[in-house]
Amino acid sequence: MEQTLIVVHGEETLPRWQAAFPEGECGTVEQARSQMGSSGLVWVSERVDEWPMLVRQWSQRGAAVVVLSYRPNQAQGLEALEAGARGYVHALANPEVLHRVATVVTHEGLWVGPELVSRVVGAGFSALGGAPRGSQQGLERLTERERAVALAVAEGQSNKEVARHLAISDRTVKCHLSAIFRKLEVRDRMQLVLHLSRSETVDA
């Protein structure tokens, strides 16, 4: 198991967290900053001030980050994913669930509730019918072919499917995606879908 760090607010520490990760370390933001970059798995409580910024900082340093929420909801879940979190789970989940989450996210997986996944995918489809106003601004930075690739990915198409649909090579699709990620300042396909669907999903 990766070295585990749990970032909490003040004295906030739950026995179930300690039971799940007896060798993990709990600490406040100030205590945890000294370990930034040395932990492979980081759990961040939603009660920590400016938690989205912290999630972004740790994820950019290669850590698998999970947000612990006491009142999980779709808007907050989307915010966690957009910040780079690999997981979003109830803070009161039992130790067995927390272990499963840890296994999934440290193997490049994503752990979120099924309703949130459905909402994200559904919003991605809606982008094909006309991206929301917030997304249009981002799409204007793309070339016509890059927009076509971005919207196809939002629909859920694989690189091979995009290549076949647009009559281009897999390698060209990858090149377009690299340019799209750079221009829209997103890290991967999931964040691209979130970027395209954010306005409609949050406002719904």
UniProtKB/TrEMBL annotation:
<dbReference type="GO" id="GO:0006355">
    <property type="term" value="P:regulation of DNA-templated transcription"/>
</dbReference>
<protein>
    <recommendedName>
        <fullName>HTH luxR-type domain-containing protein</fullName>
    </recommendedName>
</protein>
<dbReference type="InterPro" id="IPR039420">
    <property type="entry name" value="WalR-like"/>
</dbReference>
<keyword id="KW-0238">DNA-binding</keyword>
<dbReference type="InterPro" id="IPR000792">
    <property type="entry name" value="Tscrpt_reg_LuxR_C"/>
</dbReference>
<dbReference type="GO" id="GO:0003677">
    <property type="term" value="F:DNA binding"/>
</dbReference>
<dbReference type="InterPro" id="IPR016032">
    <property type="entry name" value="Sig_transdc_resp-reg_C-effctor"/>
</dbReference>
<feature type="domain" description="HTH luxR-type">
    <location>
        <begin position="135"/>
        <end position="200"/>
    </location>
</feature>
<dbReference type="Pfam" id="PF00196">
    <property type="entry name" value="GerE"/>
</dbReference>
